[in-house]
Amino acid sequence: MSDKKTTGIWKVISASSMGTMIEWYDFYIFGSLAVVLADKFFPKDNPTAAFLSTLATFAAGFVVRPFGALFFGRLGDLIGRKYTFMVTLLLMGGATFLIGCIPSYETIGFLAPLLVLVLRLLQGLALGGEYGGAATYVAEHAPKGEKGYWTAWIQTTATVGLFISLMVILLTKTVLSKESFDEWGWRVPFWVSILMVYVSVLIRKNMHESPEFAKAKAEGKTATNPLKESFGNKYNLKFVLLALFGATMGQGVVWYTGQFYAMNFLKTVQCIDATQVDTLLGIALVLGTPFFIFFGWLSDKVGRKVIMMGGMLVAILLYRPIYKQMYQTTDLALKTEIVEKTKMVPSMKEVEGTKIDSIYTTTKEFTDGTTVEEIKTIHMEDGKVMLDDKGKDKIENKVTKKINRSDMTFLIFLIFIQVIFVTMVYGPIAAFLVEMFPVKIRYTSMSLPYHVGNGIFGGLLPAISTYFVTNAKDAGNPEFYLEGLWYPIIIAGVSFVIGMIYIDRKINTLHE
């Protein structure tokens, strides 16, 4: 490729990636702070229910992404790629900023989770229109035979957005005291997004329309009814369904297992200190991100199918062994406690009237350097233990582990392996989807299967898997922590079978 063309496409990628990265950052701030948001925006009397409600609200943003794909995809195919994803950027940034401004549940009651849900839905609609526009825009600037490589740079933005969200949270926690972060500091990452959006808008203002769309528009070959031509045409609908069930459905669950489910697992099942989790996940993401580019480039050489299907297969086979090893790495039953260093400090906290919390804080040390803080809170009224909605004693147990460097390193490796699965299925997917559909209906046709696969099948993963784990734990299953993996394993398995049977290598050059 000539230097002039290379310079031109780098400008396109920079402008597209900047906005897309910020949108993913905005979207993932919510997921990264799910544990904190559960405490701020939902009733505190049942922490598990509050956390599940937060995950459900997080998932709601994914569920509406297909509607955003239809609405903004149609606009993108009618008026152009550039202006459409400028609107989605502004919508996403505004919604994220406002989430950081909502008063807590204690201040405005049920209005708090309701407002969060509304803004979360707006985020989902915006993201539904953003990705298809960015991927299409870059692909339509890429030279023939190199779409996999160049669109893979867009694929990195999701992981980079997650990484930056983790780093902003980590920095905020470092600068502020624990009390300040808990009181108001958690809002800062939401507020920061508005500054990033402003910078991105300035960059995107100078972008030109994609040459392929501009040519089609000049020749009068754009779609008059993109929705009807995309989904009312049986031939095109066949490719939409194949893209969904044979690729994006499996890609979606692998993506969210390797990043979000892993993060929730480390924090809520393994009870590792949140700052340590953000650190190890951030390192794994940095190490794994270049492989998006590698597998995108490789897909130009060997085809998209073999890499995407290979990523799904290794994920299906290795998820349970990996998560079993993750759990056992920090399992206190497998560690030796230094009993003489164990300390327990009792305290009392008056809640209101005759309601009192009896709090027992126990600290433990282990021979391998692991330290644990256990906080047992007994909710009492009139000298008796209160009962929860199931008729059981209302007692909360919160365990926080600070793990040693060796365990940190090993967990980074195990997360890194999962990120490799992600890069295999996600690196080539943009080029794969773009090549399946003609220019005039490309934005609409590729956006829907992508966002159904990622938004519905992938986005529901944290909530569904956490529900499975919780039920298995309540039932006394000793390997309860593995039960949540059945969801991504089954979904990816179905997608793998369909993809292997029906995806044809010729799709790679169908609309180049």
UniProtKB/TrEMBL annotation:
Gene3D superfamilies: MFS general substrate transporter like domains. Residues 12-511 form the Major facilitator superfamily (MFS) profile domain. The keyword Lipid metabolism does not apply. The chain crosses the membrane at residues 21-38, 50-72, 84-105, 111-129, 150-172, 184-203, 239-259, 279-299, 306-323, 410-434, 446-465, 485-503. The keyword Transmembrane helix applies. It holds the Pfam family MFS_1. Keywords: Cell membrane, Membrane, Transmembrane, Transmembrane helix, Transport. It is found in: Cell membrane. It is a multi-pass membrane protein. This is MFS transporter. The lineage of its organism: Bacteria, Pseudomonadati, Bacteroidota, Flavobacteriia, Flavobacteriales.
